[in-house]
């Protein structure tokens, strides 16, 4: 039986990869995509979402445009790491006539929650603004989903400050409210594990040699991220943070999770920092989430590559061995 999901995101290269993996795997039923400002302003991320659905031949899946500003009513700074268009300068290669739905993303999420019968898994792979706005309108909203899988935060590192990951940093109040809203289950998949599955130059070159429309697209859109990582860290890898959330849904054994009490710093020098209290040690044993502590990188790559490039499965498995 397929797992029904909704992805709330800010497309972006890594969101695009998450959507592609969800659409390619037979276990996943992507019901809708919602957009938010993050890897570009709202108009840009929304256009990118439409393009990715068209690229995958799934224009039947509805896309709902969401929040352009954070809960503080200010537009957060957007991410430059994926190029000016959010897709490494290659958004223009995908043309689409697909249109957004007339319903706002927040209103859609509220309706979907009421209609889901508790079966839908909700993803947040961008700033948590849409979800926080839905919670503010309906305090019972979190109880109407099976679980929430979040790409955000970290215990040990940051990419916008020494302590803050971008999605939580962009709208820290939204992240704080979402993490403490009372979802049945929250899985926080942050930089501590997503940095480890960054796309290496060797795998990226293999995608180029596969020479399909999709492999060339992924090869091209990941160039800017790879070059930036080389220039700043001398590591030839391209970030793929968000795709790990969908990989975990498909195969939970990819991640090692630990119960934790997780809160988010909403302002000040630590803005956006996720405070991860493993086991609720400092919280009287109370835990509100599962923290992704470790990742099986080889298992992830096997799943990711053989799902998206099924026709090249034998070559992939031989190389990974």
CATH level-two architecture: Alpha-Beta Complex
Question: CATH topology, which one?
Answer: Inosine-uridine Nucleoside N-ribohydrolase, Chain A
Report low-confidence residues grouped into runs of 5 or more: none
Separate helix tally: 13
E-strand count: 11
Q: Could you state the CATH homologous superfamily?
A: Ribonucleoside hydrolase-like
Helix content percent band:
25-40%
Global geometry: globular
Mean pLDDT equals 96
Topology (elements, then pairings):
Blueprint: E1 3-9, H1 13-24, E2 28-35, H2 42-55, E3 63-65, H3 105-115, E4 121-124, H4 129-137, E5 147-151, H5 166-170, H6 172-179, E6 186-189, H7 191-194, E7 199-200, H8 201-210, H9 213-221, H10 223-233, E8 237-238, H11 243-250, E9 255-264, E10 274-278, E11 289-295, H12 297-308, H13 313-320
Parallel strand pairs: 1-2, 1-4, 2-3, 4-5, 5-6, 6-11
Antiparallel strand pairs: 7-8, 9-10, 9-11
Helix pairs in contact: 1-11, 3-4, 4-6, 8-9, 12-13
Task: Walk me through the structure.
It contains 13 helices and eleven strands. The mean pLDDT is 96. The chain has a nine-stranded mixed beta sheet with strand order 3-2-1-4-5-6-11-9-10. It has helices at 13-24, 42-55, 105-115, 129-137, 166-170, 172-179, 191-194, 201-210, 213-221, 223-233, 243-250, 297-308, 313-320, and strands spanning 3-9, 28-35, 63-65, 121-124, 147-151, 186-189, 199-200, 237-238, 255-264, 274-278, 289-295. Helix 3 (105-115) crosses helix 4. The longest helix is centred in the N-terminal third of the chain and has 14 residues, at 42-55.
